[in-house]
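dude i think i finally got it to work??
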Amino acid sequence: MSKMLIPILFALGTAFFWGCYGPTIGNAQAPRLDGKPLGPPDGWTPFKPYVFIGVAYLLISVVGGSVMMKVRGDSFNFAATVPGVDGITHFNTAKWGFLAGTLGALGALCLTTAMMTSRGNALLVMPIVFGGAVSVTAIVSIIKLRSHGPLEISPLLWCGIALTVVGVVLVAMNTPHGHASAKPKSSTEASESPHASVDQKDTESKPESTS
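look at this
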């Protein structure tokens, strides 16, 4: 049980940080003018906060990863061979790490764009992201394992994927949406309406003159 505790804790940490990612990036959406996002040069596009997502990735992954490699005594040689293992080199870490980072960056771009275009509606976007990610992971794992030989799949797996899709749809359909703010009165309407009401009251209260 103790061997499984560490990966479970890190998996929960991933769920926590990724769960907070959507609402956090939703705060970076461009201000809206007449219900539409304000574009450049006064406003911005979803790609502007995405740049600093990359900066954060760079700092945490490159700097943090290098520090932890040094602490754990890892080698900085990404081309060294593995003694006693044919066809495996340290270049695998660079190749698959770069591919995984590319997929993560594309996912972050899609998620950032989804949050920007949905007015920061994390309750709509995030269930689709997490529910879809679980299903895609299962399908990709099946394809990968089948490439090594026959694989028996429990029908409950497909039931679980179907239930995930149903859950995502239910959450998305029942997501609470904020009410649109009342349209402010124009300066002309605001200045005219008080005088109009006063004149109307004066007209009603003033007795008709008799000849």
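Confidence is low (pLDDT under 50) at residues 179-184, 186-190, 193-198.
im so relieved honestly
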